[in-house]
Amino acid sequence: MGTRDDSDEAYVVGLCDRILGETALTQHRFDWLLGDPGTSGRRAKLPVDAYWPGHRLVVEYRELQHDQPMAHFDKPDKLTVSGVHRGEQRALYDTRRDTKIPAQGLRLVVIRPADLDADGRGRLRRNQHADLAVLRKILTRDSDEDRVCAVFRGWLLSEGWTPVDPADRWTDVEAVRGDERLICEAKGRTSEKGTDADIAYGQLLRRMTSQDTRTRYALVVPSSSVEAAQRVPAHIRELLRVDLYEVTDDDVVRRAPE
C-alpha cells in the first residue's frame, strides 16, 4: 500500500513547489471551508490538497474518481453524513471548493491526470521534464500579469520577504522583511506598453499614503515593457521610492537597469 508521500498527488505538489519557489501547506484546512453536519451537528473542515500562502494559490489534484464512477472509491451501498454515497459527496465537496475558494480571494487551480503524462488508468508516468513544462503553463495561464505576479512572489520569498495581504485590495503584491515593506504594481505583456506603464505609476502614486522611508514601492513588468517603464527618469523614481523590476520570459527576476 503506497503512502501519501509517494502518491501522484504528492509528486504533483512537489513539482508545483519547484515552480513557485514556495513549499505548500498540504492537506490545509480553512475555517470557512466546511463539510456537511455529522450526527453530532459538527461540521468538519474540508482539506485542500495544497495551499501556497505567498501566492494565495490552492491546487487540487483530482484523480479519475473525481470525474467518473468508481465503485471501489464511491462505496455506493454506504451513505455519508451528506445523505449520499461517497462518490456523490466527493462531487458535492469539489463543487463547494470550486465556489468557496475563489470567493475568499484565493486562486484555485484544478489539475487532472489527463493534463500530465499519464497512462490509461490515470497513473502518472512521472516524466518530470514534460510534467514541469505543462504545470508551468497551467499555473501561469490565466494571464501574463498572473505569471509576472507569481514569479515575483516566488523571488520575494527567495530574498527573505514575506508576502502579506495587501492593505489596499487593488495592490497586486505586498510584502514585508523586518521593518521594510514593499508595495507592488505588476503588469503583463501588452500591446499598450506606454499607456499601461503610465497607469501603473498612477496606481502606485495613489498608494503612497505612508511617509515611512522603510516603505518602498515597486513596478514589476515583463522584459517587453521595461523601456516604457523607464520613461519616468531614475532620479524621479528614487525620490518616490519606486523600484523597477523586470520579469524575463524565462521567469527570471532582476532589478531593471537605470
Structure summary:
The protein is of the alpha/beta class and 258 residues long.
Task: Report on this structure.
It is a single chain. The protein folds into two domains: 4-139, Endonuclease, Chain A; 144-255, 3-Layer(aba) Sandwich (Trna Endonuclease, Chain: A, domain 1). Helix 6 (193-206) links the parallel strand 7 (180-186) and strand 8. Helix 1 (8-20) packs across helix 4. The protein contains eight helices and ten strands. Strands 5-6-7-8-9-10 form a six-stranded mixed beta sheet. Strands 1-2-3-4 form a four-stranded mixed beta sheet. The protein is of the alpha/beta class. The model has no long low-confidence stretch (mean pLDDT 86). The N and C termini lie far apart (58 Å).
Rg, rounded, reads: 22 Å
Biggest β-sheet strands, sense, barrel: 6 strands, mixed
Q: Proportion of β residues? A: 15-25%
- Domain unit count: 2
- Poorly predicted ranges (pLDDT <50, ≥5 residues)? none
Percentage of helical residues? 25-40%
Order of helices and strands: HEEEHHEHHEEEHEHHEE
Count of helix runs: 8
Query: Main sheet: which strands, in order across?
Result: 5-6-7-8-9-10
Number of strands: 10
Mean pLDDT: 86
What fold name goes in the CATH topology slot of the largest domain? Endonuclease, Chain A
At the first level of CATH, what is the class of the largest domain?
A: Alpha Beta
In CATH, the architecture of the largest domain is 3-Layer(aba) Sandwich
Q: Structural class of the secondary structure composition?
A: alpha/beta
Give the CA-CA distance, first to last residue: 58 Å
Overall shape: globular
